[in-house]
Amino acid sequence: MQHLPTKNAPIVDYTGKPIINQTKHFAVIDYDVGRSDLQQCADALIRLRSEYLFAQKRYDEIGYHFCNGTYYSWNMYCKGLRPAFNKNITHWTTVSASEKTHASLRKYLNIVYAYANTISLCKELKPANDFEVGAVIIVSGSPGHTCIIIDEATDANGEKLFKLAEGYMPAQSIYILSNPYEESINPWYHLHKGELVTASCDFISYELKKFE
Q: In angstroms, rounded to a whole number, what is the distance separating the alpha carbons of residues 189 and 127?
């Protein structure tokens, strides 16, 4: 998380057009957005986690739950299993198997994005005790919102500082949040239990979680 590929660029949406608010980000994480309105806030965290596991070749650990509770892994996708739904019940169809390439990972993730959101992600994550790298700040709902701590440092007074990343709707670049409230430490944030105000969201009632 502390070594994500970043670039100095505008946030663009899934059509390739810059979004209106270009003040909320410090840098853009250099992952594609896709060409459909799919990779939104919860999906951005799923993308970051999946890219990490892919880079570590921990392919068997890539898997997520849909909103209806169905678990769908990349292994299942590569075996040719595709979900179909009837009255919110998952049924499976079978197509040709796929190789475990980054291209197939992206196609798999597009399916996950379509059927997962902050509600399913919040259920899937484990409780976190404190702010730390990898901790997820999440409000589950329709809509909900979430961001993730990607880096941590200590200021001259010995107080911890944190760097945040998120996605948003409509689907757009995943980005590192700017801090317009403490410009002297931008993009770092002081985070304390209670209300959290970021450049894009006011987290009043949230849960602090983490991937296992």
A: 21
Tokens matching residue 127: 């409780």
Domain-embedded: residue 92 = yes
Q: Is residue 60 part of a domain?
A: yes
Per DSSP bridges, beta strands 135-139 and 63-65 are unpaired
Taking the whole predicted model, whether its pTM rises above 0.90 is answered as yes
What percent of the chain clears pLDDT 90, i.e. is strictly above it? 96
d(CA 39, CA 141): 16
Q: What is the pLDDT of residues 24-41, one digit of tens each?
A: 999 999 999 999 999 999
Looking at the structure of the chain, the number of domains it has is 1
For residue 5, whether the previous peptide bond is cis, meaning omega lies within 30 degrees of 0, is no
The count of other CB atoms within 10 Å of the CB of residue 151 is 17
112 within domain boundaries: yes
Long-range CB pairs of 135-139, under 8 A, 24+ apart, other chains included = 135/208, 135/209, 135/210, 136/45, 136/208, 136/209, 136/210, 136/211, 137/164, 137/196, 137/203, 137/206, 137/207, 137/208, 138/42, 138/206, 138/207, 138/208, 138/209, 139/203, 139/205, 139/206, 139/207
pLDDT digits (tens, 9 = 90+) for 65-78: 999 999 999 999 99
Q: For the chain, how far is it from start to end, CA to CA, in angstroms? A: 15
Whether 95 is in a domain gets the answer yes
